[in-house]
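A reminder from the course coordinator: this example appears on the midterm review sheet, so study it carefully.

Given structure:
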């Protein structure tokens, strides 16, 4: 996985970084915690400028947030719940998770977009309830850009500060990244093959009410 990220950065430059961060948001096969420090490290070798790394990472992150925002906005909560109820195993999301995300957004307001972008595992999904609740696009983009900029800057500067010592970190990071990818795959497979939970009549009635 580390070799794939390095190869894409070497061949496509900033465009490769934008693409990686876009994919990380839409479907996170490679975490930003790996992408951005590695990109920051390349800046110490003169391949990138650190400011360019931060900008490219932020642009990719914001672009990746838009498909999920429009999904929530266009499809809506009820249809998303139906989709998750029918295909939730493959989508790795349940109707209850959609309800909780929407409720969380409603309770905490649009500022949750800013702070949610700083939380691993929440960064991408927070865009869906923003769309479901029809948050205006301009504030969504502003808060997403600000939160994503802070997150990418922290990670890029971490790799930049490591500098020549990044090679030592890479010795441990490469196998660790493979372990993370394996755990993600195992978690997904578990959601696919596990027996479905029975939904109680009371729970269904509560939702309809």
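Designed residues:
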């Amino acid at each position: 996985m580390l070799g794939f990220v390095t190869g894409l950065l070497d061949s496509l430059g900033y465009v490769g970084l934008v693409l990686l961060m876009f994919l990380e948001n839409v479907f996170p096969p490679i975490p930003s915690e790996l992408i951005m420090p590695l990109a920051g490290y390349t800046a110490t070798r003169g391949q990138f400028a650190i400011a360019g790394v931060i900008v490219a990472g932020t642009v990719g992150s914001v672009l990746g947030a838009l498909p999920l925002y429009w999904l929530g906005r266009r499809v809506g909560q009820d249809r998303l719940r139906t989709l998750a109820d029918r295909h939730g195993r493959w989508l790795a999301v349940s109707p209850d998770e959609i309800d909780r995300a929407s409720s969380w957004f409603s309770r905490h307001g649009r500022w949750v977009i800013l702070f949610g972008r700083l939380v691993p595992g929440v960064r991408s999904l927070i865009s869906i309830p923003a769309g479901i609740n029809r948050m205006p696009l301009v504030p969504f983009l502003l808060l997403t850009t600000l939160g994503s900029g802070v997150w990418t800057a922290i990670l890029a500067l971490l790799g930049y500060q490591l500098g020549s010592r990044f090679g030592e970190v890479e010795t441990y990071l490469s196998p660790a990244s493979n372990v993370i990818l394996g755990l993600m795959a195992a978690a997904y497979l578990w959601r696919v093959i596990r027996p479905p939970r029975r939904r109680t009549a009371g729970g269904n009635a509560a939702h309809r009410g």
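The radius of gyration is 19 Å. DSSP finds ten helices and no strands in the chain.
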